[in-house]
């Protein structure tokens, strides 16, 4: 694995070029003595199910993995809980209001964005919706459709942690 701060050459505090790799997940600036750690960013994803037990998969509108299948969700904002984040993300992406997302499990992931690897901790939730719920896609979602996960080719899924999560969810 390449160092998580490999793309950062200058100290974020003083701007010095003396910002050297310091262990497996930090850099240290010998000019101002800052040690900067790369920690995982929190992200959420939802298994939204209908009465048939099908799961809603979205098609990504943008890179990474543009055109590939995904679960709805996204990054947790500062001062936001994971539950608040999944509720907000589902509202932004699918224009539906949900309550009571049920936490399932978490998985580490690497998210490539702007030529930088963002290490994430993806928090997965179960959300049940009524079959009459009207879904309209927005934000970074091109389309959304319910699938029987037994018939989804895992290679159509764009992100590593989502592939693992779907395999895990299939076997529960």
Cα gyration radius (Å): 18 Å
Largest sheet: 4 strands, mixed
State the distance separating the first and last CA atoms. Answer: 31 Å
- Helix segment count? 2
Instruction: Tell me roughly what share of residues is in helical segments.
Output: 10-25%
Helix and strand content put the structural class at mainly beta
**Order of helical and strand elements:** EEEEEEEHEEEH
Strand content range: 35-45%
Instruction: Detail the poorly predicted runs.
Output: none
What general outline do the C-alpha atoms trace?
elongated
**Strand count:** 10
Please state the average pLDDT score.
94
Question: What is this structure's SSE topology?
Answer:
Elements: E1 19-21, E2 26-29, E3 35-37, E4 41-49, E5 55-60, E6 69-70, E7 73-75, H1 82-94, E8 102-113, E9 116-128, E10 141-147, H2 160-170
Parallel strand pairs: 4-9
Antiparallel strand pairs: 1-2, 2-3, 4-7, 5-6, 5-10, 8-9
């Amino acid at each position: 694995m390449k160092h998580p701060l490999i793309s950062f050459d200058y100290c974020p505090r003083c701007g010095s070029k003396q910002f050297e790799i310091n262990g497996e997940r930090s850099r240290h600036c010998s000019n101002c003595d800052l040690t900067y750690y790369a920690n995982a960013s929190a992200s959420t994803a939802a298994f939204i199910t209908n009465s048939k037990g099908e799961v809603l998969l979205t098609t990504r509108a943008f890179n990474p993995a543009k055109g590939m299948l995904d679960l709805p969700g996204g990054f947790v904002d500062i001062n936001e809980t994971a539950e608040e984040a999944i509720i907000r993300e589902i509202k932004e992406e699918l224009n539906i209001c949900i309550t009571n997302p049920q936490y399932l499990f978490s998985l580490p992931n690497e998210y490539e964005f702007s030529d930088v690897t963002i290490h994430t901790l993806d928090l997965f939730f179960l959300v049940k919706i009524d079959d009459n719920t009207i879904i309209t896609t927005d934000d970074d979602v091109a389309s959304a459709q319910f699938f029987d996960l037994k018939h989804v080719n895992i290679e159509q899924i764009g992100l590593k942690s989502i592939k693992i999560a779907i395999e895990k969810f299939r076997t529960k």
